[in-house]
Fold each of these.
Amino acid sequence: MWIEILVVMSMTLGRLQAQAGTEADGIQFLDEYNTKAGMVYNENVKAAWNYYTNITDENLEAMTASNLESAEFSKDVARNISARFPNWNTFTRADVRRQFKKLVDLGFSAINDTEKLKSISTLEAELTGIYSTGKVCLPEFGKGCLSLEPGLTDLMAESRNYQELAAAWKGWRDASGKKMKSKYTDFVNVMNEAIAFSGYNDTGEYWRSWYETPTFEQDVKNLYEQLRPLYENLHAYVRRKLMNKYGAQYFPDNGHIPAHLFGNMWSQEWVNIYDLVEPYPEATSVDITAKMVEKGYNITHMYRVAEEFFTSIGLDAMPEGFWTKSMLEKPADREVVCHASAWDFYDGEDFRIKQCTAITAEQLRVVHHEIGHVIYYLAYRKLPRIFRKGANPGFHEGMADIVSLSFQTPEHMKAIGLLDEIPTDDKSDLNFLLKMALDKVAFLPFGYLIDQWRWSVFNGATTPATYNHDWWDLRCKYQGISPPVERSEDDFDPGAKYHIPGNTPYIRYFVSYILQFQWHKALCDEIGYVGPLHRCDVYRDSAAGDLLRNMLMLGSSKPWQEAMEVITGSPEMSVLPMVEYFDPLLQWLKEQNKEENIGWSSICPTDIPSPDSPRSASGSSNIHPTALLLAGLILVLGIIFY
Ligand code: D0W
Ligand code: ZN
């Protein structure tokens, strides 16, 4: 069947070749491409779905074979283009030129060695398999063997036992990352080798090219720098609260926070420790999880609630097949990749979600996120296949998260019956803003650092000899956190985060966190909302849906700056809406932190010595010099009197 399709395909392309390579021919070529590509990629996505929802050797083999077929197909198309339309660059229609430009950029498929291409596909699947099947046994804490979802995730969220948290934290890294290091090294090498055939210096450069901005690295750096004060103030406030809870003896004197105390396996979002850091216990806070349980939410209900948000602003409902073909629950009878995801099957009607859904507020947010991806798929499903993507990867993530800003407002909670009365006092308002910051602000350095590590691995600055060392350098520098137990190069902590074995680029999430606030503001302006940005809910306002749709339906047919202009009126990324959103909180945090030393030293206490160079104290220390002096003095006095 596959061979037949490919043969028919090359015959068609061959026939075209007999004619002249005019623009009209080019357009016809694209039409035919779209029909065939729809079939090829549909088969390919199906094969991947089968593996991800049922991890077996057989499904792995089928997926690998399918990946190779699609790569062969893409290569064939590119070959035909250069033979038939070497002049595509001179065509008058920009959208036609843009399709050709994307079609000849083959990525890894450009490599001429099928075995190598095969190993890229196999290594990625195997690494994902290790991650997805990892288990941690904690008998010393009265627990059996736990998988990441739901077991370890719940433990990290709920346990307040320092030692138990540390055991789960270490256990997960032993069960996942530690088993990946040599495979990951091979993986990096073979990807770099393949991407050279596409003319890129390394895989990181290829990934960044999707943003179509020559200054991209500098741009994200500038964005991060502008938001750093917000993160540092949150960090100092949370550090004080955690110190009070667990005891100062656990806190290194370089200003770091132990990485396992944030209610999250990767310290990436801190919302699960809201109870430990709540500003005003006497005022109102919305405990969505408790409300969901009280209202008897089940999984379907969660998806229907998310879907209804989008239809309430005039966007599409999930198509019929979504409900029958998705995997919304963790199956008991087989291993699956639990890490949530949304899938476009490229036939214009088949869209699915795979999620091991649990009945918690965190998961309700993930449900909205994944449905958000599907809404984007639906909005651009009529475009040529090559344009059925986000304007850039950050756009897809921004769209997936934008409702989280409306959804979690007390206004919205009231509207859907999860809150009885909307609080109007300042204290409840700060409770709400702090909770949002534990999600959105805490994430910023994490979202920024993951791909700095990977870019450095891909360009060779970070080698396997310093994989973990360089990882912790970034974790210390940006997040101000330290590992709770000793680390070494026998560990491979990056691999304990899904997107490293899964090979999903991560800077998209950082970009998304900027974009979602810009867009949220744009939608709130559009519906004529007046009031503080953080209390705006666009629910049930079709003006918001219309504006959003105008941007979504462009897919990747235009450079992202144009899509941006459609929704915000300006082509640029800007942190200002996010700064505006959190400004009342920032003022409050500064007041709370008057006695604190904001920031931390970038030196890790559990330092991993790099084999050849002794660790330099690079990165500026934010600890006040007098504090260091004082600490030194106390130490000396202590020694003398001892
Ligand atoms: C896809 N990717 C999965 C899952 C899990 C989103 C994730 C990040 C983050 C908090 C076939 C395919 C893509 C979509 C597409 C991925 C999640 C939880 C939420 C960062 C954290 C937050 C938002 C993001 C993390 C996703 N499809 N999130 O791969 O079309 O490209 O489904 O990994 O609020 O670290 O958890 O982005 O949906
Ligand atoms: Zn996403």
Amino acid sequence: MALNADKFIEAFMANLIAKNPGENEFHQAVRVVVGSVAPYIVENPWLIEEKIMERMTEPERVIMFRVPWIDDRGDIQINRGFRVQMNSAIGPYKGGLRFHPSVNLSIMKFLAFEQTFKNSLTTLPMGGAKGGSDFNPRGKSNNEVMRFCQSFMTELQKHIGQDTDVPAGDIGVGGREIGYLFGQYKRLRNEFTGTLTGKGLAWGGSLLRPEATGFGVCYFAEEMLASKGLGFKDSVVAVSGAGNVAQYAARKAMDLGAKVVTLSDSNGFIYDPDGLDDEKWKFVMFLKNARRGRISEYAEKYPTASYYPGKRPWGIKCDIALPCATQNEIEIDDAKALIEGGCRCVCEGANMPTTPDAIAAIQGAGLLYSPGKASNAGGVATSGLEMTQNSIRQKWTREEVDSHLHTIMHDIHSACVQYGTDENGNTDYVKGANIAGFIKVAGAMMDQGLV
Ligand code: NDP
């Protein structure tokens, strides 16, 4: 008897949860994908026989390792390192490294799983991986960060390489950390290759890589908005986070004529009803990247702004919301506040920032909504462009990289529309992104046999 999609989802998820107990973020990410692809799978029952979802949710390899290092007081510190190599069907593993105290196996697996679909959507040949550590760079000296990165890479270098696995940055891993990691990789392997992306411009980095995720989010949002005759011009934008993705999403939104009124960090958010301007944006760049300070200092410097400790920005009235901080930062009450505040579009810069019930509420109220695996793919796509430049030993201009980025975001949008649009012309970007990503990876896995 033919299995229906709902039964397939429930049976599949029950097995996954039993096999991976306590990995809540991983369960959440898988459930969203299975929810989208189940109708396609039950229509193609050979995919059930091939156990395609079981294979896609079992990492090809999980590496967990001890990272010992010595702090500035001379005390020994022990952290845990991870690399989850999820799927290499369409290319070498590719995905960022996250240094944050919340890092655990569940978060690594959810991110590596999402990365597989995201990388598939970019149109570039990259498999999916993610890694990191529960190390917290906040409050550490440069020397402590360097010693940690050197110890972390001493183990990680055994498992990566330019044709095997190419890590990049993520939360807590920016230009400084990539520099220390690359230096140690080069020293241990005695080779200068493009094994890490997000490198400095003088040593193999690509122009526009720092900007790419945030810019790409806005390019994607522009496409979504244009489908409803809307745009950034004269709109009010709420951004969360104040790190790499938030900084450049805010910059591009401003350049497209929007007023960006919020930024946040893990301690609270600032609301500036006058919006960011060039000077304020440059201050944020200095504050977060050079001084490594807190976003509350924005409100101390600019009296037009208020600081709300312990709160998220979603209660502020806005037309467009760009969550760019971390997972599960828009919960159901936040979604209701956005809807009541007149928001028209939620475009994710972070990975999985919206909880499933919040997504349902946002989509149910008819807002445009894009999952991070589609709208934040500009970062990894430009990392892919950095790999290409490293391989051909050439450097493209900023305009060339930006043009590639624009084309890729446009193509991802088209793929979402192709697979996610119903007979009334409404696009479900979650469904579109998941099905488009799935079909390509599943096809490649079938071609390569049972490996
Ligand atoms: P950064 O470390 O540069 O910035 C992260 C920002 O999010 C900081 O403002 C940080 O505040 C805040 N944040 C972190 N954890 C929490 C939390 N638990 N609650 C509230 N705020 C928090 O990271 P990125 O900007 O690189 O990454 C942001 C998001 O974008 C992540 O989900 C990442 O996976 C995703 N992403 C990043 C890409 C990239 O190219 N960098 C590519 C694709 C996705 P604080 O300073 O207090 O920690």
